Amino acid sequence: MHLALLALDEGLLKSLEIRSRVFEKGTDIYEEGRACRKVYIVTTGWACSYKIMRSGSRQVIDFKLPGDIIGLQALNVIRSGHSCFATTRVETAEINTLDLIHAFTANDRLATSILGAASRDDAMLVERLVSVGRRSALERTAHFFLELAERLALRGMGSKTAFDCPLSQFLIADSLGLTAVHLNRMLRTLREMNLLTFHEGHVHILDQERLTQLADFENSYLE
Amino acid sequence: MHLALLALDEGLLKSLEIRSRVFEKGTDIYEEGRACRKVYIVTTGWACSYKIMRSGSRQVIDFKLPGDIIGLQALNVIRSGHSCFATTRVETAEINTLDLIHAFTANDRLATSILGAASRDDAMLVERLVSVGRRSALERTAHFFLELAERLALRGMGSKTAFDCPLSQFLIADSLGLTAVHLNRMLRTLREMNLLTFHEGHVHILDQERLTQLADFENSYLE
DNA sequence: CGAGCCCTTGAACGCCGTCAAACTCAGTGG
DNA sequence: CCACTGAGTTTGACGGCGTTCAAGGGCTCG
């Protein structure tokens, strides 16, 4: 379990210059094209990395939960290729990217831990690509909530069958390559199939087995 | 330009145990679920990492060209989440993953180089997700060939307006989240618009400017 | 010369997007 | 206390983009 990064390498990370930093709901954490010299470890709240196209449409890349690291892709890219904003109020621990890279090459456990986080980010990205490329809207929706349930359960933020999700349907739709209107229909269908409900920020998974089968979900990539 | 990894850190890499290894066309380089203790640097040929779903449909994650590293995502995942096969005959330099990680923490330049490669892989994956999630089939197709042109030009394997591409339309379609039938229609449309031709493994970009505009292509993520 | 793979094209279907309207609810200010 | 606003949700009607199914083409290879 690599999530408790702060605990895992507490002694080490203390040697880095860390300061806590809060982002209010709706504010940017970093923007596309800007230099990014900081990395943020989320302690509370949800954030969201995304990309906006010339046409104005948005693709959400990833949702960042407590324990996740924001800006890992910046370890070696001076300019970020996408943006990130605070979906809720977000509290973070801010670390200087250069400091981190430095500590990185000096310490095996830290390097392993960071590489592990990057590796899981990558696996989730691949899974999202598979979803958007080859799953139907209904399957995608099911898969999304199963993945979320798993990630939250690993953090002790709810069980695998009930958890809070402070995301608008617009945001989720932009993550799944759907329109909000169609996502709403898929949510209704899942509810009518007695598989899952999502109401007022609260998710209930009613039949995990059938849902897992529908989504072709396989959880090993999350740990 | 980080592509010439072998040249860049030649002295260093020589200290690793490297042996050349060839994969014939159509053979697997690694398979989903198998332990992967090796990393391969492509020297000639094209490979393709992909994932197969229970339903049998396939999503291509990435095409690997000469200079690319296969198995980077395995740096910290014991079991691979997807598979990779040789699209053409592929010659590689094989490196022990553990050796690489070891050298990694001991040497800044190597670490920077590898992180850079991983970072570019990640940026391409994001761009593919944006394509599949938010671009029309025609835009996706245009974007795919522009990205390929850029990558190949960086390697000196053709100009930005003409290059070889030994991929079947099935393979490309599986990379773009389309059917081969529809990709074929999009190719026809691009040809009829005098933007691009793809015939017998050879690509001609006829109007780079209009194609770039159509695809909303922006090349900085490739370096 | 047949088998297999890939490319090409047509016809019809259906999933999902677009457009539009109504509803809830929190916040704001009169 | 209530009108007003704006963001988010829900639902219906309709159209189109992309899939599915089907057939025929060229090519290489045995």
Strand order of the biggest β-sheet of chain A: 1-8-3-6
> N-to-C terminal Cα separation of chain A, in Å?
7 Å
- Rg of chain A, rounded, reads 18 Å
β content of chain A, as a range? Answer: 15-25%
Low-confidence runs of at least 5 consecutive residues of chain A: none
Helix count, DSSP H or I runs of 4 or more residues of chain A: 8
Descriptive account of the structure:
The structure is a homodimer. By secondary structure, chain A is an alpha+beta fold. Chain A has 8 helices and 11 strands. Chain A has helices at about 5-10, 10-15, 95-105, 110-135, 135-155, 170-175, 180-190, 210-215; strands at about 20-25, 30, 40-45, 45-50, 60-65, 70, 85, 90-95, 160-165, 195-200, 200-205. The interface of A and B includes residues 58, 108, 119 and 126 of A. The structure holds a DNA duplex (30 and 30 nucleotides).
